[in-house]
Design a protein that fits this description.
alpha/beta, globular, 253 residues, seven-stranded parallel beta sheet
């Protein structure tokens, strides 16, 4: 697709946790649609490598790597200052970075709790906070928070993960109300069973059990989530805010 005819031409898009999986698929699709994409990972080497691979795959794509840990508030602040300095604006933030640490409630340690909440909720909050400051300057923007079907309906052994993703939904609703007057839209996506590195390691019996609840009878792909991200990033969703889009193949029907 020509860079001049994509849905995101002229937009600066930051995607956290974009080295692989859902984040990587989002970065590639946004680049295909003409956005100038900022690919975030924790280290500059992996961010630059991911950016180079996307630029190699997509002629004329504009993709840069930007390294910071979303759970490190000082690093987040510094990164967004650099975005303002280097790009002057930010049109879309995709809060995708997250971790999964399963444990039955009786086995949840303080360090596990802190790590999951700091990354999944804290990282989403602080990135959204910094993005809102940039977007308010231009009176426009879209913040897209990746939650999970577990954040909506829970799951045994995932109390902390589910709580962190439920907190993301509460944050989304509140920010949509607060930032709407500044023409900043805030929405969430709640993926279901998506084929990623995290789900690939599940035992076959567990995968079969999950699949029995998927009405569309297939595992979701990272590109399925990326399509929803594209919609919420584009002007086609200009009047959509405070919503949660379930990309789950009908698991909650």
């Amino acid at each position: 697709m020509s860079q001049s005819t994509g849905q995101l031409v002229g937009k600066i898009v930051l995607i956290t946790g974009a080295g692989r999986g859902i984040g990587r698929a989002c970065a590639q699709l946004c680049a295909e649609q003409g956005a100038h994409v900022l690919v975030n990972t924790r280290t500059q080497d992996t961010a630059d490598a991911a950016a180079l691979e996307i630029r190699t795959a997509i002629p004329h794509a504009r993709v840069d790597g930007i390294a910071f840990d979303v759970g490190d508030t000082a690093a987040v602040k510094s990164a967004f200052q650099a975005i303002h300095r280097n790009y002057k604006r930010l049109d879309v933030l995709v809060n995708n970075a997250g971790i999964l640490r399963d444990a039955l409630v009786g086995m949840v340690s303080e360090s596990l709790f802190d790590e999951v909440m700091r990354t999944n909720f804290g990282g989403t909050f602080y990135c959204a906070q910094m993005a809102a400051r940039l977007m308010a300057r231009q009176s426009s923007g879209s913040i897209i928070n990746l939650s999970s079907i577990i954040g909506r309906y829970g799951n045994s052994g995932q109390a902390v993960y589910g709580a962190s993703k439920a907190a993301v939904l509460g944050l989304t609703y509140s920010l949509a109300k607060e930032l709407g007057p500044n023409n900043i839209r805030v929405n969430a996506i709640a993926p279901g069973f998506i084929e990623t590195d995290m789900t690939a390691s599940l035992p076959e019996a567990k995968r079969d059990d999950i699949m029995r609840g998927v009405r569309m009878n297939r595992i979701g792909k990272a590109s399925d989530v990326a399509g929803a991200v594209l919609f919420l990033s584009s002007d086609y969703s200009a009047y959509v805010t405070g919503q949660v889009i379930g990309v789950d193949g009908g698991m909650i029907i």
